[in-house]
Design goal:
231 residues; alpha/beta; 5 strands
């Protein structure tokens, strides 16, 4: 278990940013150090704990509203082997975390991983981050790849938040939805926005197909886009 006061500067900053974002939404936040423990709930012996060599070097547990989150750090080097090993250790940490959660709570367990400085625009890191986020075992996973310039951290983190449960796309400064663009997609003016009407109709059919999995929907949307304009 990593105490919050002993977290590395990067992970401490990551935790504080997430905490601040949650508090700004008036959500209840509390530290859950047991989620970053090496001992399973109810255990006290070696047989009910995981070796440090099978756990991440540092991690932090936090609860936000109904979501329990384990925070960790991606390796400094963008290699498949290093990322797979980090992912393995973090999954183990999430297995421990799940022992402290109720059945329904495990469904909302999140693993958020901090990428190294300058990883944001590196193709190698982008590919590895996708590998991490597509791994749906034990917990949902998200990676924040940080920019080279620390002055862009706030902007980059804001973009990261848009992919998390802390996103609030329905909240606007004026309190109103800006639905004109959506109306145009379903109305007769879609083509004036550069989106062919036939493509808009096909996208709508794909998105509403209840038989498709999320991955199937994404794949079908991409294929439809690639076919646009073809006879």
């Amino acid at each position: 278990m990593t105490d919050q006061s002993t977290l590395s500067p990067g992970l401490a900053d990551f935790a504080e940013r997430i905490r601040s974002a949650a508090l700004a939404l008036d959500l209840k936040v509390e530290d859950r150090p047991e989620l970053a423990s090496a001992i399973f709930n109810g255990g006290s012996s070696k047989s009910t704990s995981i070796s440090p060599t099978d756990l991440p070097g540092e991690s932090h547990g936090i609860r936000i509203d109904r979501f329990n989150v384990v925070l960790g750090v991606l390796p400094d080097i963008a290699t498949l082997e290093a990322v797979r090993e980090t992912l393995r250790r973090c999954r183990n940490q999430c297995v421990v975390a799940r022992s402290y959660l109720g059945t329904n709570e495990t469904l909302d367990l999140q693993l958020m991983l901090l990428g190294p400085r300058s990883s944001e625009r590196q193709d190698a890191w982008r590919s590895l981050a996708l590998l991490v986020e597509r791994d749906d075992r034990v917990a949902r996973k998200l990676a924040w790849l940080r920019p080279e310039d620390k002055r862009r951290d706030e902007e980059s983190f804001t973009e990261f938040l848009k992919r998390t449960f802390l996103a609030r796309p329905w909240v606007h400064d004026d309190g109103k939805f800006e639905d004109a663009a959506l109306d145009e997609l379903s109305g007769g003016d879609a083509s004036t926005q550069g989106l062919p009407r036939t493509l808009a109709d096909e996208w709508e059919r794909i998105a509403l197909d209840e038989k498709k999995t999320p991955d199937d929907i994404v794949s079908a949307l991409v294929k439809a886009w690639e076919r646009r304009g073809q006879a």
